[in-house]
Structure prediction request, 140 residues.
Amino acid sequence: MHIDGACHCGQISFTAEIDPSRVMVCHCTDCQVLSGAPFRAVVAAPIGQFHLRGQPKSYVKVAQSGNRRAQVFCPECGTPLYATAPENPTSVIIRLGCVTQRAQLKPAIQIWQHSALPWLPELPRIGGSPEQQGFLPAPT
Ligand SMILES: [Zn+2]
Ligand SMILES: [Zn+2]
Prediction:
């Protein structure tokens, strides 16, 4: 499947070929902190089928698995874009949040569930609204 994506400010964009049956949710604590979200959804693309436009920045972290990973993001708006090996990468792990087709990319597996936030299963039962109405005001 052909996908495309961009960071929030538009300075960095990309296209890729992915297997839509290989979308994954990661509940590891690194993904929670680095994504700013309760969990992260990702999909891999071979490096030869990933085309980047723009000049991103990267931050190398040591994952819980012990692997060194370059976390690549937009230097202007900070949007997380993908992760890859710091040297001789063969693939990129694209962050679903910046993929245009993300609504069609349902995860097939979840990993690091032992650090999944305990309230996630309750989410469907938590009240809400289609837009911002009902947003809780800050305490005064
Ligand atoms: Zn940006
Ligand atoms: Zn993770």
